[in-house]
Specification:
This protein is 24% helix and 32% strand. With 539 residues, the protein is an alpha/beta fold. The protein has 2 domains: 328 residues, Glycosidases (TIM Barrel), CATH 3.20.20; 63 residues, no CATH class.
């Protein structure tokens, strides 16, 4: 093993410059070295969707399902990809014109039992203050009349797009009560041709479908709703290249995504995006986990610290490859109908479902390890250069975090903070086989250096907070009311709010206002005449 600690500061900087030039950062296996440097001046991808999980709504039980969701929220998970399975509910064409919706037909479809489970799940998340953090996701086979064999039929892109956009329109403005979500995932694993995971199609047809969805959303008054794609089963750059060739498709795409199980993600997503014509995009892994053979057919992912360490390593590796956001598969054990490939119970969840008692319990090792990442790798941070582990910094709030996993014995780590806020102490949190999301004694910092003992077989985080400089305005728009803009500025703890009161409808909104690592709950009430709203932060 290369012993980084034997180098002087000059040699270290030269070596780090060499690594940075190669695009290597925090992934050299130096985790167990005696020293490390964390440099806030060298910055990589923006974090914008780290604390996410998938939710399946094929089954739904008020008393257990929603309580389990509340447990996930309490552990710092505040992004939910709510999967609407399958896509074949429009069994007969609503009419012959995809540009003119037969709302009597669509209202009947989207008010049905299965879709109502989706809406109730999103409504519960909204009531908990999660709005923009909800991603409505299309999954499963399309209707037979839209298909040719096991592929989306050529020329049917506008009809499939109409169904997708009509679902969003129904939830956002036609249903009573309406729901709010900030993102729409329009397809699922189109590159898998052996069975129906979504509207199966090649890269070129995927681009056409995306363009038709953009057209349909604009026509239905949902021009402010962001879409996510291409949602391939692997890191398939050909689908992204096709999308980048269409200015129309890219007008609503702010996040590329793919799925990742098991082996390395492959190419560096951050580098790919930065050299493209759309350098401000981010890359999400919208299904992410280690592989669990049999877990789609009744098996259960083991609740062991070893599995928690493996799953965390999977996430950290992707962070090192430029990924900005994740949705773990799966938030809760659930039921998915993948017929004819497999039908039945999915046991990938952070919460284990007991079919006898019909209750959820925590897979505490998996949930605890995930929680360490969710609580300390915060939206708005950027990954920065680290010679051991992974480090993140938000220059507006002056908060920074260092996270890693330790798969060996305990060791002493001495770290140097460069181009980061001056602090006197760091919070130290960890998860191991006997401690569940435990806050240990704070770690003293002197002259921007610290020494900490890392527990054996653990996932850990160090978190520091300097004096905030200024927090850039954070805005929230309702996709169904693009004229309603709420802006919050937090400068040294002061909250300033600007509201377009003329367009401001009554309702419940959610926004982080100076959110810290434990998501302390805050309420902000705004009233203007008979127009009012309560802003609720995530606990």
């Amino acid at each position: 093993m290369f012993v980084f600690g034997f180098l002087g500061k000059t040699e270290k900087n030269l070596f780090l410059a060499f690594c940075t030039a190669l695009g290597v950062n925090g992934a050299w296996g130096l985790t167990y070295g005696a020293t490390a440097t964390y440099d806030g001046a060298t910055r990589y991808q923006l974090m914008d969707q780290v604390a996410g999980v998938n939710l399946g709504c094929y089954w739904y039980n008020d008393s257990t399902f929603l309580k389990a969701i509340d447990t996930l929220i309490a552990y710092g998970i505040d992004k939910f990809k709510v999967n609407a399975w399958p896509m074949n509910w429009e069994s007969a064409n609503d009419n012959s014109d995809p540009g003119a919706q037969n709302w009597a037909a669509y209202d009947a479809i989207f008010s049905g039992t299965q879709w109502n489970n989706v809406w109730k799940t999103i409504k519960h998340l909204n009531d908990k203050g999660i709005t923009d953090g909800v991603n409505l996701a299309m999954m499963g086979p399309i209707a037979g009349w839209m298909a040719s064999g096991n592929m989306m039929a050529s020329g049917m892109e506008a009809e499939v797009a109409e169904y997708i956009a009509a679902a969003a329109k129904y939830g956002l403005s036609r249903r009573s009560p309406t729901v709010t979500f900030g993102h729409l995932t329009i397809n699922n694993e189109p590159d898998i041709t052996g069975h129906w995971e979504g509207a199966t199609c090649g890269a070129a047809q995927s681009k056409v479908l995306t363009e038709r969805v953009v057209d349909a959303l604009n026509a239905m008054g949902l021009s402010n709703l962001e879409i996510v794609g291409p949602t391939t089963s692997t890191n398939n750059i050909s689908y992204r290249d096709e999308l980048r060739s269409s200015s129309k498709a890219m007008s609503k795409l702010k996040h590329f995504d793919s799925h990742h199980y098991g082996s390395s993600l492959g190419s560096n997503a951050y580098t790919e995006i930065k050299i493209s014509l759309y350098p401000n995009m981010t890359y999400w892994v919208s299904e992410e986990n280690i592989w669990c053979g049999g877990c789609d057919g009744g098996g259960r992912i083991p609740n062991t610290m070893s599995v928690g360490l493996d799953a965390t390593g999977h996430v950290l590796s992707d962070l090192g490859n430029g990924v900005s956001g994740f949705y773990l598969w799966d938030g809760l054990d659930s039921y998915y109908d993948y017929a004819p490939v497999y039908t039945g119970f999915s046991g990938w969840g952070l919460m284990d479902y007991n079919t006898g008692t019909k209750q959820y319990t925590k897979r505490n090792y998996l949930l605890g390890c995930r929680s360490i990442i969710c609580k300390f790798v915060l939206d708005g941070m950027r990954r920065i250069n680290a010679t051991a582990g992974y480090a993140f910094y938000d220059s507006a709030t002056n908060r920074f975090s260092i996270v890693d996993r330790n798969t060996g014995g305990s060791y002493s780590l001495t770290g140097t903070l460069e181009n980061l806020p001056t602090v006197s102490m760091l919070q130290f949190w960890y998860q191991d086989a006997t401690h569940n999301v435990c806050r240990a004694s704070d770690v003293s910092v002197a002259n921007q250096q610290f020494t900490v003992t890392i527990p054996a077989s653990s996932v850990w985080a160090l978190h520091g907070a300097g004096t905030p400089t200024s927090l850039a305005p954070r805005s929230l728009r309702r996709p169904d009311r693009p004229d309603c803009l709420i802006r919050v500025v937090d400068i040294r703890g002061r909250i300033l709010v600007a509201v377009n009161t003329d367009a401001f409808p009554a309702g419940v909104y959610a926004m982080y206002v100076g959110a810290d690592h434990d998501r302390s709950q805050r309420f902000l009430h705004i009233a203007s005449g008979n127009k009012q709203a309560t802003f609720v932060n995530i606990p």
